[in-house]
Specification:
The protein is mainly α and 298 residues long. The protein folds into 2 domains: 174 residues, Alpha-Beta Plaits; 116 residues, no CATH class. It is 54% helix and 6% strand. The protein is built from 14 helices and 4 strands. The chain has a two-stranded antiparallel sheet. It has a two-stranded parallel sheet with strand order 3-4. The radius of gyration is 23 Å and the shape is elongated.
Amino acid sequence: MFLKTLAEACERCGWRVHAYVLMGNHYHLLLETPEANLVDGMRWLQGTYTKRFNLRYAIQGHLLQGRYKALLVDADGDYFQTVGSYIHLNPARAKCFDLKAGKLADYRWSSYPLYIRPAKRPDWLCVDRTLGALGLSDEASGRARYRQYMQKRVLEIADSKTPREADANWNKIRRGWYFGSDEFRDRMVQALDGVFEGKRRDSFVGDEARKHDVLEADRLFKKGLKAFNLSASQLADLRKNDPRKKVLAWLIRKNTSVKNAWIAERVQMGCVSNMSQYVGEVERAKAGKIHELRKMLK
């Protein structure tokens, strides 16, 4: 039922699906959206699927785990393929089969079996980009090598004490708002800046505004580090109330609406309850070290 509904969504919206997996209470999709219709398309997909599922099984209420999260993925480099593998390996991380004896292709609610069995592959599933990122083609030899590559990844998960951390990139995919190069991030920030330009900020609500603020907060964080000649790793060695940290927090808090917890974690300032005090101290500074640091960011 889910795949039928997804196929209809692709036809309605012109989407290209590169990977998918359906789990117990959530799913993952790697989509290309040639038109700016992700929000409308996802509303239709989730609403329609939930209605059909509830009608078939005579139940009511929410079916899926919360609202969907959208991650911007850089089409260049290895980023696209990494997200595709992350999705295909989800059943392995969740131990939906015997990792040592079973095969990833045995999990039927995934696009992975269709990657290696083209006869059953629907028209709306695209495999060339993911295979191409690994230097493989959609031919028998390329599909066999892809199977070997993925089975090796499954064994890595099986041998790991922390399967969710078996790949360093996975945390970036789970927790970030983008996955790509710094240049890609900057292009996304500029694009959203264009959307906000000339309009009242309070006319934007919900995910659009929040996403912009996280993008902008990340940009300002890196701008501040550069101005202070610091790296993110060096922040851990500074005192939690170091003047440079206070000014970084002030810069982000003044220009975005991200939560204090986000700032405290990113700037490594410790207790969130001190954030307002630090920001106020920077705002009131008329001379001294903090005042000079603030001037460096203008």
